[in-house]
Amino acid sequence: MEAFWIILTGTLVATSCGLLGNYLILRRMAMMGDAISHAVLPGIVLAFFLTGTRDTIAMLIGAGLLGVLTTFIIDFLHKRGKLQADASIGVTFTSLFAIGIILISAFAGQVDLDQDCVLYGEIAYVPIDLWISNGGTILGPRAIWISGGVLILVLLLISLGYKELYLTTFDPSYAGVVGISVGLWQALLMGAVSMTTVASFESVGAILVVAFLIAPPATAYLLTTRFRTMLWLTVGIAFLTSTGGYVLAVAIDGSIAGAMATIAGILFAIAFVFGPEGGLMSRRKKQATLEESTVSAA
Amino acid sequence: MIKHVENPVLEVHDLTVSYARKPVLWDIDLTLPQGSLVGIVGPNGAGKSTLIKSILDLVPASSGYSKLFGDDLANVRRRVAYMPQRESVDWDFPASVLDVVLMGRYGKLGLFKRPRKADREVAHECLRKVGMEAFAKRQISQLSGGQQQRVFLARALAQEADLYFMDEPFAGVDAATEKAIIGLLQEMAEQNKTVVVVHHDLQSVVQYFNWVLLLNMRLVASGPTEQVFTNELLQEAYGGKLTLLTEVSELVQKGQFAAREKQGYRG
Amino acid sequence: MEAFVEFFSLRDPNIRYVVLGTILLTASSAVVGTFTFLQKKSLVGDAVAHAVLPGVCLAFLLAESKNPLLLIVGAFVTGWLSLVVIDTITRNSKIKEDTAIGLVLSVFFGVGILLLTNIQHSGNAAQSGLDSFLFGKAAALLPNDVRAFGILAVLLLAVVGLLYKEFKILAFDKNYAAILGLPVRALELTLTTLTVLAVVVGIQAVGVVLMAAMLITPAAAARFWTDRLSIMLILATTFGVISGVTGSFISYTATAMPTGPWVVVIISIIAGISFFFAPRKGIFFRVRRQMNNRRMILDENILKTFFNLGENDHSFKEARSWDQLLVERHFVPRRLRNGLARLRRQGFLERQSAGWVLTQAGFEKGKRTVRLHRLWELYLTQYLRIAPDHVHEDAETIEHVITPELEQKLQEKLGFPEVDPHQSEIPYR
Fold it and tell me: How many CA atoms lie within 13 A of B177 on its CB side?
């Protein structure tokens, strides 16, 4: 049963992250995902400190604000400060993350949060952290409810805004001309990324969440040329990542989140070498056929 | 030679456009008649694409404005179609030809609505017009440059607009395709639709367009092709940059001036 | 205060080691970071930094001790590997660079975390302190470490010194470097190797998680102060060292505090100050310059209005009243009052009982603005074919921008014309 809850949580988290990650990698904003996942840390710590509990709503608000602030600062440094884009991202998220770590050290003992949690989360404790209703009924692990709720929100966003997100990702200027607000959908997407990052934070930590954001969609991207298929594949890969990660972690006695990231990397490597779309093998083959045809033409 | 018309389908009024405060288009003032097939012609870096991007609000104007059908763009978006340059998107994007053409219907659909059967029919019809019907299911990454261009054209057609802006629709297409496309555009103009095309091949201007804009940082000429496409005006448009204008542009940029004094600050 | 004196007097040999170590570590990352910054490859450093963690862990697993040399080798190998992987992915698939960086960064780090937790769970006593590689612990630098990392840092700085000229061209314009016949590929390879080395050297003090900041932020801050590479390198190094030493001081006094975050916060503060207050490029400076421009435009417009009034009734020596000025041009009253006072202080206007009157200097300045306005209007109609009734707005701005040299050119180009497109006389000296 314990394994079930952990794998389920991992799958829910990886699915929410991966679905949003599809948009991030196609928009060439993968590093924005990286930046936001780091930068929400001070928001989490402050919310933690102010409420004194792991009140999820407060954390979501605190970190959500930080997520929006991060995109704002990066944009400000880039546009008003004329700092090149990559450096704007780098400067912003490292400083915010550093502040978060300092806050954790300073409040150590007062908050139930430590560096380990930041680094690789506490997914192993998911089964014992139960949500008990006022009537005393046990409703199952809290993390399931949180990550499940977030997944529903993510699904709502990408199904209701399917064509808007699709078009603003593929061709933003055309979207602007036909009257779809690029800025609005960008903000919604970034808001969803912040929220998902925060909700995943307790399970997998602030850094490994990046692996969940990027690796499954990148793998799916190598396996298909259809966007819908890519989304579905992401879900499947999320499940494989979570299950495989749990098995690996148990086998070698290490961090479950770290093992999940490792599996995500291995799945990508397999797709990269053997995948039909842009996999190393298929490229070789294409090249070979190309050479053959040129030879026969000559 | 700048000819103005009554009841224009497009009016550009004293439009100045700057990139990073540096003016790249100066005081463009023109009107276009309905039903014309317009070629925007000028040397590289003349600001041809910038002009249509500014009209479409993709690049902000430092001063001046554009009116389409006598109205602001926001109120007439459904009557305006755009075909960007092929290079503006990533063709590795996971999408099929039909997916892309259907995007032309998005503006008409409104929030939360999915394309319906009727939209698919329009999309297929537009693909047929550009001779790409057989490719509807093909992934866009597998298209040649000319085919990509035709897909974008079909997408613009699917908007079923009255005013079309096309950024170099003939770049990278073979002669047969170019002929087919221009036939299509001429047909549209005959149906009283207006088509504005950024074009860089001087050889074909007279044959293709009935109205020409000569552009080189400023508007050199605008009018019916036979009146505008003269040696004298072409020489003026292509006869090198106005160095003085370039120097002033750079001064404006360096000094961090607003390209125009804001009306409120009028001192 | 006591701790401060004790730390910065460097009497304690341990402290001396820590300070020396930190200086070398931060200096090397600042120097290498400047080049990666200029090549716009800042985030690659982030990937390398995270990717050294599995190397450190593997080296420990193999050696079962924290031998600095082995750890360096391990870190170097996986750091390098991460770059090779990023390169392979972007070259051989449709995956874009940002995705490849994020992927490699997080997966390598995940593997590192897996190994690290595995080591921690194994109960090996020698492992304690291995996690200081995550967030850095400068105060825990041992003489042995300082020697190993220090030698590396010196080596690195020496290589940069030797190849300074080549790196400069490479960072400035890669294609140009190729045309000059420089071995671009080999140079890039050297620079990437140096980046990995800088990361390997720096992690002891700052930790892998925040190492990227030590590569990016000093360079970004220095960029705001100068356009010259040599000065930029010196500034970046100085900024890096200041933050490094301060950070290790804090970690020395508050032992529970990891060094890395403090170093990063301090360098970020320095960067923040640079972004806002650096002369010429800082945000405040640019805002102020825009305000000065606006003021200058207002002043010239006031003098121009006096000149126009003088033209109207052929008398430039007459005093003009407040109302007269406002009728001639739509000034914002508050701005007009400030402008008049300022122009009087500067000697362009004199106050008389009936109002204000132009001095000789004010007359000349007003005349010049009017001249430039009319010359530009003429230029626009003649060369840009803009209708005479559309040129006024544009000239309202450009009259304030044109320099004396351009004025000369404009006059020559137009052949010292007599009148503008509206048949108003162009006033020359």
Answer: 18
